[in-house]
Design a protein that fits this description.
six-stranded antiparallel beta barrel; Thrombin, subunit H; mainly beta
Length: 109
C-alpha cells in the first residue's frame, strides 16, 4: 500500500504517536461491541453497538462508530474477522473523526 493511501493519524490529530508494535492492515467489515463487560446473566440485557473496521494489527484494531467510548474501558468484540468466539479488548484511545463519528483504538491481547 502506498503512503498516500495509508491512514495517517498524525494528520488528523497533531501530536499523535503510533504506539502499535506490529504493522496495521486495512480492513473492511463490521464489528459489534459491548462497551462494558459483565458477568453473564441471562436476566440482564446487554447493549451492543455496531462499528466498522478501519484497520487491524496483531495486537489490536481501529474501528469507527457513532458512540464515544472512554479510554481504559474493557469491551467485548464480535466479528467474523476475529473468529466465532467473542474477543475481549481494552480501549486505548477514542477520537472524533467527524460527522458525529469516533475512531476507537482497541488493544487485543
Amino acid at each position: 500500500m502506498s503512503d498516500t493511501m495509508k491512514f495517517q493519524p498524525e494528520k488528523c490529530w497533531p501530536g499523535w504517536a503510533d504506539r502499535r508494535e506490529s504493522e496495521r492492515v486495512p480492513a473492511t467489515g463490521s464489528f459489534f461491541y459491548s462497551p462494558t463487560v459483565r458477568d453473564y446473566d441471562p436476566r440482564v440485557a446487554v447493549e451492543y453497538n455496531s462499528a466498522f473496521a478501519i484497520d487491524v494489527s496483531e495486537g489490536g484494531a481501529c474501528v469507527e462508530t457513532d458512540q464515544f467510548v472512554e479510554e481504559g474501558y474493557r469491551i467485548k468484540l464480535y466479528s467474523r474477522m476475529l473468529g466465532d468466539a467473542p474477543v475481549f479488548g481494552t480501549v486505548q484511545w477514542c477520537r472524533e473523526s467527524g460527522d458525529l463519528r469516533y475512531r476507537i483504538g482497541i488493544s487485543i491481547p
